[in-house]
Amino acid sequence: RVGKVLSAAGLPIDGEVVKGVYMGKGTWGGNGEVMESVCPSTGEVLAKVATATAAETSEAVKRAREAYKTFRKVTGPKRGEIIRQVRNAIAEHKSALGALVSLEMGKIISEGEGEIQEYIDICDYAIGLSRSAAGRVLKSERPGHQILEVANPLGVVGIITAFNFPVAVCGWNFALCLAVGNATVWKPSPTTPLCAIAVTRIVADVLEKNGIDGAVASLVCGGLEAGEALVNDKAVDLVSFTGSERVGQIIGTKVQSRFGKILLELGGNNCAIVAPSANLDLALRTLVFAAAGTAGQRCTTTRRLILHRSIADKFLPRLVKAYENLQTRVGDPLKSHTLIGPLHTRGAKDTFFKALEQVKREGGEILVGGESYAPSSGDLKQGHYVLPAIVKPASPESPIFQEETFAPMLSVAIYDDLDQAIGWNNGVRQGLSSTLFTTDMREMGKWISEEGSDCGLVNVNVATSGAEIGAAFGGNKSTGWGRESGGDAWKQYVRWSSCTINFTDDAPLAQGVNFE
Ligand code: UN1
Description:
The longest helix is centred in the N-terminal third of the chain and has 24 residues, at 109-132. The chain has helices at 2-8, 54-71, 76-92, 94-105, 109-132, 168-180, 193-209, 224-232, 245-257, 280-292, 309-326, 346-361, 399-402, 418-426, 441-447, and strands spanning 18-19, 21-22, 34-38, 45-50, 137-139, 145-153, 156-160, 183-187, 217-220, 238-242, 261-265, 270-274, 302-308, 365-368, 389-392, 409-415, 430-431, 433-437, 457-460, 472-473, 476-477, 484-485, 494-502. With 516 residues, the protein is α/β, with parallel strands linked by helices. The structure holds 2-aminohexanedioic acid (UN1).
């Protein structure tokens, strides 16, 4: 099975060490530590991967910078044409790459393919952007003058991605970078190198065929050594990081201390509120996916559920029942019947159990799930399977309610008044995603207003997770304030110049200053 998935994704299957470093034609290599990619569903080693040393990472940045100097002169529409070819090549391999994501990350096959679709979608967006990334022309107070806002590429963008979206999140950054003329150096999560290698092989092939230096899409698989070299390199103009708040704070501070640009997409402690007027059937269906889907490993996963007292007794037992039904759908993510795959690592499983312990220690209770799941199939015995849990912390003030547990644990609280629920939604460090289930227009209006949710994603009757690429994606507060994919996110990948141009032979000064 493993061989089939790997070879369909264009990866070697004969036990040879897969090269995880690329910086242009003929450079596939990696002199760093050899790492193993381990399947979260079975515990088997999928492949050994050659990773980047610090020196190789610096070399990749240098080559990306050289490649950028030529690539920035390629016209926007021509760059768009290259993105179109990347898009088509990725689309051709959609099911193969989707299966690879499922195998290496552990999400179910439909979500694996959905992630590749997200890469395709952002390419479509970036193709349009390659012709429409626009500055402005402004009126000057000086006669015969014009003011232009001009967007030029930054140079080299470092993209550091997490295990949970091992393809799409790089795509968000990479497609926009290509559209506006940057080169990129991608450091994927140390636990999902194969997804990154498979995608980079496809992208590199398109670039090389078009006579573009492949260093525009460099890859440095690896761990701390490669990551630190990338973050500290002054030649990396922007570091885009997706991961934990803890690591984001370290990276953010390091990049800031050398006056680099930073784009952070960190933790979420996402909340769903169910109001008295909500369509409860819709809320139920939506929440099961949002809270338990991807085994709770999206940054947008619903982690807190705030139910109005008037519907709580009706709604909660139905949700618990739905979670009980889910228990028959835990297992091999590559099987179409499965809805809940494994957690990505043993560490994640430990975190899950520790969080459940904390709920109990703080006086809360576990309503459903929370056990380890032992699959009947022998192959899956070493997988990190758990039964998704719903818990009721002692109070919304309990410390556990404040923390993001990156596993399928949903914490419930009961509210009486919408302002109180909004207060709990906003009363945590993180500010990524939020949703309100209601059919009351007044509640909707408040929710999206200055008195409402303080998150970057503020939904109504829609899951906290599963955002489309059209709008900007990202969160506020300790989530890091970064914005990626659609909306105005592309504006972060360019340097803006305000250009005042004098078309006359006079030299008037602004603000009426006289210097004659
Ligand atoms: C992430 O978990 O890092 O909105 C990204 C979503 C996906 C992206 C999640 N489109 O759930």
